[in-house]
Amino acid sequence: MTAETKTTHHHGNLKEALVRAGIDLLEEDGLDGLTLRKCAARAGVSHAAPAHHFDGLSGLKVAIATEGFRIFSNYLESAAKGIDAPIDRLRAVCRGYLTFGLTHPGLLSVIFGSGLAAQKPDNREGDYAYNILRSVCAPFIPEGQNPQIIEIQVWSLIHGFTLLYLSGEFGCPPPPIEDGPFDQIIALLDRVGTLGA
Description:
This protein is mainly α and 197 residues long. Helix content is 66%, strand content 0%. The protein has nine helices and no strands. The longest helix is centred in the first third of the chain and has 27 residues, at 3-29.
């Protein structure tokens, strides 16, 4: 370990370094490649170091998910930036969702991993991401209707499409995003105002 590494970790950045190492491992090897030992090695610390910051591998995944949701939110916000028409903003956020999933499939698998939300003591980052979806769906909610009816339908549409695209089900392995399949499925959003009717 270098003197620079020791100094950085001494000042309290070890947890962040381990999270960053975990994200890098996810990007390279997927969820199966994420282990505490590999994270420690990537961060340049002893294999016992993660125990001081995380409650096992599940604790590391929670920390990675928190950072993952922040990155995810940035994708959604950036995609809709400067777009005013409600339907175009909705389409843009969905494209941002797909782009995130194709660029960071490992993070996608962690932030929406089975049972993760129940382990997460502070889900503000996840709530923030959901509120972006909520805001672009809001113009299409019929008066007096539960907003979640449309929000969940839109979320299910783009999340399901993203997972199917990642699995190669459309005959177009990612990346890059091919407009054909995306544009055809996303055209369903043109009817978003009637989904809950």
